């Protein structure tokens, strides 16, 4: 079997500043992959990586994501949700940055895929780059409960991280032999089971999609399965697993701009420290 390299990106909300820093290092080094997979915030940063746009990576992960118009009371009063996904995509990304996934659909050689949860199917589906647009990108990173479902061609979508927090399984199924995994949590992180109150709330809000509450109940088990697969491949020498080597005071929905910049720079420095291993993986 010929070698096929993949870039695999976890989500993580504001913690995605770490991913953005890692990707900016890859752009500086002009490192390419045969395939790439993005979930949640990782889907947005993957698009910036494919555009080879370090400014997008930095500005979105250290400035825009912490803006009061995106997270908090402002979007709640404007959109009725804690995270203002509509304002983020329409005002910041499209109008402010001129960010448009159409710019790369016909240009990138990388076989990229994005994960979104299809409420009708009750499962995470992977959308190839050729079928992506800005609405689908928004769907890929819209968290349940704190965001509204995104409707596209009569179907409803949410964040693919409901079941596929780290899209390693899709990479393996596509025949990728060697993967660079970038996560936003420590190496020894163990995901706890979802609270029963959250599961019941999911069942109530998404009553037409009974699978979603079941999937949320099993979310920690799916995460454990993905981590175990990654660590098994790591032992075999087919995975390079990058994660924050220091603790920075940033959570999924909370982080000031100074800490976000620290996390971004940590991503760059962790990649530089892994320079030899990265080049060995992709050569």
What does this structure look like?
This protein starts with a strand and ends with a helix. It has 13 helices and 8 strands. It is globular. Strands 1, 2, 3, 4, 5, 6, 7 and 8 form an 8-stranded mixed β-sheet that branches. Helix 1 (16-28) packs antiparallel against helix 3 and helix 1 crosses helix 12 (257-273). The longest helix has 17 residues, at 219-235. The chain is of the alpha/beta class.
Q: Which properties best describe this structure?
A:
single chain; 283 residues; alpha/beta; 8-stranded mixed β-sheet; 13 helices; 46% helix; 14% strand
Shape: globular
Runs in which pLDDT lies below 50 for 5 or more consecutive residues are none
Oligomer: single chain
Ends distance: 15 Å
> SS-based structural class?
alpha/beta
Q: Characterize the biggest β-sheet.
A: 8 strands, mixed
- Tell me the fraction of residues in β-strands, as a range: 5-15%
Q: Counting H and I runs of at least 4 residues, what is the number of helices?
A: 13
Helical residue percent band: 40-55%
Strand count: 8
Mean pLDDT: 94
How do the SSEs run, as a string of H and E?
EHEHHHHHEEHEEHEHHHEHH
Radius of gyration: 18 Å
């Amino acid at each position: 079997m010929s070698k096929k390299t993949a870039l695999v990106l976890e989500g993580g909300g504001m913690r995605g500043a770490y991913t953005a820093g890692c990707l900016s290092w890859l752009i500086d080094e002009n490192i390419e992959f045969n395939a790439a997979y993005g979930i949640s915030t990782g889907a947005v940063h993957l698009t910036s990586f494919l555009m080879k746009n370090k400014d997008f990576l930095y500005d979105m992960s250290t400035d825009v994501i912490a803006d009061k118009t995106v997270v908090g009371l402002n979007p709640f009063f404007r959109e009725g949700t804690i995270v203002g996904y509509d304002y983020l995509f329409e005002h910041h990304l499209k109008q402010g940055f001129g960010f448009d996934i159409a710019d790369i659909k016909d240009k990138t050689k990388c076989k990229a895929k994005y994960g979104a949860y299809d409420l009708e199917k009750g499962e995470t589906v992977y959308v190839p780059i050729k079928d992506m647009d800005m609405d689908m990108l928004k769907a890929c990173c819209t968290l349940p409960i704190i965001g509204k479902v995104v409707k596209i061609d009569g179907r409803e979508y949410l964040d693919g991280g409901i079941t596929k927090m780290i899209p390693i399984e899709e990479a393996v199924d596509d025949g990728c032999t060697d993967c660079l995994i970038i996560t936003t949590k420590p190496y020894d992180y163990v995901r706890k089971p979802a609270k029963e109150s959250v599961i019941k709330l999911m069942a109530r809000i998404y009553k037409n999609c009974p699978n979603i509450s079941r999937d949320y109940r099993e979310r920690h088990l799916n995460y454990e399965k993905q981590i175990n697969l990654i660590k098994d491949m790591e032992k075999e020498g087919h995975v390079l697993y990058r994660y924050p080597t220091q603790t920075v005071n940033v959570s999924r929905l909370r982080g000031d701009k100074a800490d976000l910049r620290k996390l971004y720079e940590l991503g760059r420095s962790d990649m530089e420290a892994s320079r030899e291993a990265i080049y060995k993986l992709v050569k």
